[in-house]
Amino acid sequence: MSGPRRVSAAVRRFRAAVRRRRAESGQVSVLILGMVMLAMLLIVGGVDVTAAQLARVRLVDAADAAALDAADALDEATAYRSGLSDAVVLSSATVKEAAAAYLSVRPKPEGVRAWGIAPGTGAQGGDTAVVVLDATVELPMTGGLLAALGKEIAVHVEAKARAPLLPVP
């Protein structure tokens, strides 16, 4: 009689183990689904943040180039009236005009939807050109979702340049 009792006890343990496994089945799938969603969120976020940063860097490059061009925009009236000092004499009007002219012929940087000269652009101290740009950046992964929600990513950059006058030896 000990033989059948052993078998039935072993069978009961086996059946209990099978029931426990069935009760836990599918829980790993939920964990895997959560991990995949988290990984996708990190990938999408990383791609969009990188795209926004690259667009900002390209915008800084454009602002630097516009400021360098505007630093040569001599304000002739002030130069004739006051003379030259150690740098090209600038006015806010000449800086704005030169920056606008430069940006009008330059193509928009990649990843930038719209851009323009912002308040704050002008001459600082009469010899330093300050160019401030505002832009709207396109995000490759979530840009459509943000547009549907009426949101946009705005970038604001500032660049300064000065054109010193060197004495002729």
Structural description of this entry:
By secondary structure, this protein is of the alpha+beta class. It is 56% helix and 17% strand. Strands 1, 2, 3 and 4 form a 4-stranded antiparallel sheet that branches. Helix 2 (27-70) crosses helix 4. The longest helix has 44 residues, at 27-70. It is rod-shaped and about 115 Å long. It starts with a helix and ends in a 7-residue tail after the last strand.
Task: Describe the secondary structure blueprint for this structure.
Elements: H1 2-24, H2 27-70, H3 76-82, H4 92-105, E1 112-117, E2 122-124, E3 128-137, H5 143-148, E4 153-162
Antiparallel strand pairs: 1-3, 2-3, 3-4
Tags for this model:
membrane, 169 residues, 4 strands, alpha+beta, 5 helices, transmembrane, single chain, Tad_N, Putative Flp pilus-assembly TadG-like N-terminal domain-containing protein, transmembrane helix
